[in-house]
Amino acid sequence: MAANATAELEAALSRLTQLGQSHASALDSCMRYMAANAWVGGGAPAFAQALAARRASLQLAFQSAGEQIAQRIRQLGGQARVPAFSTSVSVAAAQPSSFSGMDVTAMGRLVADLQRAGQELSQAGQRLTAELSALCISSPSARQVGDAGVWAEEQVGDLRQRLAVIQQTHDIGTASQATAAFGLFGGHAPDANGIGKLTAAAAGGDVVALKALVDLQRTGKDKTLAGRLSVWWRQLGPLAQGQLMNASPSLVGSLNGLPAMDRDRANRAYLVAQKTAITTELERLRASSAGMKEALKKLVGQESLTRDPRQKYDTHAQRAQLIQSIGKIMGTIEGLDLKMRQITAVEQGLARGGQNGRPAALLLQLELGGLGKTVLSFGNPDEADNVAVYVPGTDTKLEGFGGDDSRRAAATWDQANFFQPNKKIASIAWLGYDAPQWSGLLSLDRTPAFSPAASKGAPLLASFTDGLHAAHEPVSDVRLTVLGHSYGSTAVGKAAQLRPRSFADQLIFVGSPGGGAPQVNDLGVNSVWVGEAPNDLVGDLGAVAPLGGDPSKSNFGAPQFYVADSGDFVGTFAAHSKYWDDDSASLKNIGHLIDGQYDRLVPFPGPSRTSTVTPPPPIAPPTSPPSMSHAMPTEKPSPHPLPSPAPAGE
């Protein structure tokens, strides 16, 4: 008799398990849309909280019902295990903001998914009621599942009405339907920095307003800017976008939050235009300089032949003027030659795209002159599953970008793609700040021994990652890793603190002289990893340079991954540049980390050290999340290593 009862309960538990596995994730896609800022402002916060609560209640209901049946089985002497019905939802970390707007296309998909979920959950609630009733089990679980379905169907009507208003209010021929809601909600959004006025003026071709947006972006003060620019740009439509690109390609190409393909198109146009203009100007200046030098020779010869002191005085004055003019021309030529070398370096970096199976490179920023700035991406970050941003360090300048900097980003793409060929990878080389130079060692602002250069670069990097979040397609998940090499890790650490819990999903510090913060907990990023070669002297500078805590020290609190000794003498600093060497353990581990493959890291050799980690299980969302960005469970583990010995140097 007991055996029959146990068998009946086990069959019921099996049916419930199938039911829960089929329906526990019914609201996940809606959560993804909301976390990716498909709807912000207005009633969005209340809706997001209610959605998270219903999702948590739904999954808990299946869990509770399963546990009740399993308990009956155990009471009869049987064994039963109830699987976890909690699911993970991951997106680029959404940023809470005062901006209001709605992505109509994304919201249309959300409403469709919500309607389907409502119908399915209502039926699932009825089936669960029947199962529990047959077993004489009294439980609120069936009602909770059904209530989630009723709630979902109730929301559909309200949201469809909002979408209809948006579509009727805006001329879809001139404003992108995907973001027309900015006009509906945007007028009521707080706008302390006057972004609304600036975007309106820029849309009309006001270059001054466009430059003001770029300048505001550089300060990193407004966390909402990239999201608003993303909405504004798509609302313009192709015609207005093309006009702005033609009028100010360099400014348009610099705006974070715009689609990567559009930024690439604008920056490539700027690159071609600059190359043509500079080439023409150099030819003119060199011809003019040659003519002046010839005239100078004649004056010198004339001075040597004349005996009239007055004529010598006149030719002397002319000679001085010619020398001054030639000097100015040569200075201009020198500056233009530098820009041409910078253009060549960017072209070399772009040429790495399309090689060895890599996607074409995208040019996301370009500033010529001085140290120069550029951002290059192998793969489209707007649609990638895994995005890596490489930030270089000391002595980096645009003139040398075609060498190690673009090569390292390309090698990162190669490795991450090799380990996960079914994922879309984007690997970005971000030279968007003035890296410190050894030539400026005695200058407080430019020395690599202090942090001002990192502090100035941090807002620029924070604004850039704001743009990655804003531009990424909401229909796909993304894992964002920011990797700082050398002094670049100091800049990364400073930037992370400007956007706590929303900067990135993961940080990697390589050969770091200082992480820009005393300890890893100060960075506001759940997953932080450190790699340092035993013979990398730069990585030990954190002990003497005021660049924040030394990430390689145990008191910093970050797990380390294995990097082999390169065999180079410490004093040559050669090991500092070999983290991306082909087939190296460090490059393999960087690829695994970017892909989230913590269990596949190349381990430290010997029994005394290990990089093995056991990621914690996914955390279910809270019933009443404090904000939309914290309402999500995450599949990204916050890895903690097993106890490891002190790093070299301690």
UniProtKB/TrEMBL annotation:
Residues 601-650 are annotated as: Disordered. Residues 614-625, 639-650 have a biased composition (Pro residues). This is DUF1023 domain-containing protein. Residues 373-545 form the DUF1023 domain. SUPFAM superfamilies: alpha/beta-Hydrolases. It comes from the Bacteria.
